[in-house]
Amino acid sequence: MQFITLLDYLLLPFYLVIIYLVAFKIRDTQYPPGHSWRPYFIPGLTAKIVGALLIGMVYQYYYGGGGDTVNYFHHAQIINSSFGESISKWFGLILHIPEWYDGKYAEYISQMWWYDAHTEYIVCCITALLGVFTFTTYLPTAVLLGTIAYTGIWALFRTFATKYPYYTKQIAISVLFIPSTVMWGSGIFKDTICMFGLGWLTYGAFRALINRDFRPAVLIMTVVGFYLVAKIKVYILLAFVPALALWILFTYSHRIRSSGGRFVVKLMVFVVAGGGFMFFSQKFASSLGKYSLENVAKTSYVTSTYIASVSGDEGSAYDLGPMDPSLAGMLKKFPAAVVVSLFRPFLWETKKVMQLLNAVEATLFLWVTIKVLLTLGFKRTWRTISSDPTIQFCLIFAIIFAFAVGISSGNFGALSRYRIPCLPFYAMAMMLIYYRHMPVQKNILSLKL
């Protein structure tokens, strides 16, 4: 399918000029010369734009015009084609008002196989909304979506750069420039919107809990972030909420001098967090569907088995070994699932160019982890983690999420997309642990211990 046309390339420069004019204005207003964040604002935006363009071209010219991003855009084209008939019909499709069998909308709904697939359709609608401003051309729309998503990624950067001002460069590398996050979190994908939402959700939670910042703009973006993540990939919240609850526990329990008081507070937080988790799982069971608490083990087993069976001949499947479809059986694979999400594919497992790029990145994550442990030792590493609730928050979210996607993917190609929410948090945790004891000038990626 030819979804990138000559019109894309003709229009693209105009949108890039507008985006960069606005970006430079924001940078010069918010981050004047000498501000420690200034050097990273434009390069971070450029990374998102290049990622959005590059992944679109990969799907057009390398994969031949197939894949999810093409389907989202195709649905957006159908939605926006209703403009020619009636603005009210366009609003009806955007708001998902008509039922699939509504004859008045049959011309459009009959072409959209994702019309009642709510998580996919919301991405189509967001793409269609942006397409109104880009004449529904792929590359300008992808760039515009990537630019908006950058506000969430930049909010995530601001969250940790504010708390750890001495490690601004390391945090920028972890949040803004991880290749997988740039590639899969910039184009027309669910992941792009979820990274936007996760960034704002983290920023809003930390601003409210640390700085008592309850400004309307912050609250609105936090709610928007929560809503988008809940609507598109609600299972991200199943890793994020427990990590945040434990962060609150460890942060505020340190301020209580009485050991008895600390015990009571910890007990209360564990009870509330556990009860909230169970309530959330049951309350949103219909939304979670196959990812609900009672179905997650079966889902992981079925999904990974199916993906492995259909992709085994292409060399992109991975196998965590025999697993029974029960919660206990799933938990037995916890270490293997975390390892596959963070550190695989290994270099010798690659058979494709795209796989090789993922393997290089995974190898760097593995090396950083090994270097932290060898340089600091297990005892000092553990002491650093246990003394900093924010590092704990990053690791808990990253590891829970890595386990969830590692056990349910079964394919390195799918995994490279699904795992991106946990990568910035894991990278930040490793950076913060290492540079607590090492000079910031030292390169964590160097082979020298």
Pick out its properties:
449 residues; mainly alpha; 21 helices; 72% helix
Summarize the amount of helix as a percent range: over 70%
Radius of gyration: 22 Å
Main beta sheet: strand number and arrangement?
none
Specify the structural class.
Answer: mainly alpha
**Fraction in beta strands:** under 5%
* Dominant shape: globular
Domain module tally: 3
Any low-confidence stretches, pLDDT <50, length ≥5? none
Order of helices and strands: HHHHHHHHHHHHHHHHHHHHH
Number of strands: 0
Q: Could you tell me the mean pLDDT?
A: 86
Count of alpha and pi helical runs: 21
The termini sit apart by 50 Å
Question: How are the secondary structure elements laid out?
Answer:
Blueprint lengths: L5 H25 L7 H25 L5 H14 L5 H8 L11 H4 L8 H14 L6 H26 L4 H9 L2 H6 L5 H21 L5 H17 L2 H19 L5 H25 L1 H4 L7 H16 L15 H5 L2 H10 L9 H35 L1 H21 L2 H7 L4 H13 L14
Describe the structure.
This protein is an all-alpha fold and 449 residues long. The protein has 3 domains: 6-198, no CATH class; 235-290; 295-449, no CATH class. 72% of the residues lie in helices and 0% in strands. It is built from 21 helices and no strands. The longest helix has 35 residues, at 353-387. The radius of gyration is 22 Å and the shape is globular.
Concise account of the structure shown:
The chain is an all-alpha fold and 449 residues long. It is built from 21 helices and no strands.
